Amino acid sequence: MTTTTFPQPQDAAQVPRFAGLSTFMRLPMVEPDRLDTVDIGLIGIPWDAGTTNRAGARHGPREVRNQSALMRKVHHVSRIAPYDLARVADLGDVALPPMDLMLGLDLIEAFYRRVHAAGVRPLSVGGDHLVTLPVFRGIARQGAVGMVHFDAHSDTNDSYFGGQRYTHGTPFRRAVEEGLLDPTRTVQIGVRGSVYDPADLDFAKAVGIRVVQMEEVAARSNEDLLAEARSIVGVAPTYISFDVDCLDPCYAPGTGTPEIGGMTTLQAQHLVRGLQGLNLVGADVVEVSPPFDVGGVTSLVGATMTFELLCLLADAHARLGRLPAASVGAAA
Hints:
This protein starts with about 40 loop residues before the first strand and ends in a 12-residue tail after the last helix. The protein is of the alpha/beta class and about 325 residues long. The protein contains ten helices and eight strands. α3 (about 100-115) packs parallel to α4. It has an eight-stranded parallel β-sheet with strand order 2-1-3-8-7-4-5-6, with helices on both faces.
């Protein structure tokens, strides 16, 4: 039984999961003019204008909402009850044009500037991985954040197709260049697959990003890897970005750039749970592409990992309080 008056998900024992409006975790929808009533905002970014091959992640937020009806109120391992620790709501989708990449970047940034100004921790569902760049532009102008990044790809390439600098393969290079992401406080976990050129990871390594390729992940214990990741990001503001293609495609076939040889869902859950206690200012789950999915399994992965991240953000809120805008990027 909840002991707070905070917003609660619709009870599946009272209203069947297949009934009612589809919102993230079956939570109330809150309009942007009521952000003062929200501590953690679940936000959809239905946009894949940065995709270089298999488009479809624009449909991710809607299907993740559908599958999130399967989530319950309390984490079965950590026992975190996120809706008792923080005021959580679905803030809807960023309204985006599918045909104008640069306008889309500006609109996402403007939305997150507003969320940040209200002191809300954002938990986003994309969308391709380019969406994280304008999110950073919205929340990290005061100073660079650190990041724990789960992905099959480093996403630090420079350009595609004769000089296109904004794709889902370039967001973190741009974020470092723009002073939004501190590369010395960034760890990328699960990187694997063939590359365009032997020098593809040179930029990431040269600026100080810790790239943990999947072969190393497989050779180390979760506890050892987590200890290193936590030491890298430290106690300063940190963001978690979870690309579902960090998973082997047998667990998440519905994604834009699948790579075999990836993590299991259980391994990914254990690694994310091990980040409890960090100074978290936001998180996202990206690259769920329903047109390539099988039986909704990837959307279920997206919803489940969103709940895992929600538990971490609720714990951060309970420990650190509502996020003042000036704290993002500032030393703890």
